[in-house]
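User: Can you help me understand a structure? I only have the sequence.
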Amino acid sequence: MSQNQKNLIVIDGVRYYADRPSSCKSCYFWKNNKRGCILGKNNCYYLAEAPKKSKCDGCPYAKGRTCASLACYKELEKRIRR
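Assistant: Let's start by predicting it. Here is the structure, written out as tokens:
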């Protein structure tokens, strides 16, 4: 392994550098439970790569409800017909 590469870990499908604390609350950038991380999840100091975007990012139906968009129904239909 070259010196430019670090060991990686995967948490909830996101790749982080292995020196990441096991909890955000142990991180230097965590302020308190009300404010949370001052960097934000997408700018985490330990991220090895940017989080992957989902087609549902920003969709009003993706927040705890069943999605009703036409794109999602077409994808579901494809899965069912296989």
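Now, to help you interpret it: The mean pLDDT is 77. The two ends are 42 Å apart (CA to CA). Let me know which part you'd like to focus on.
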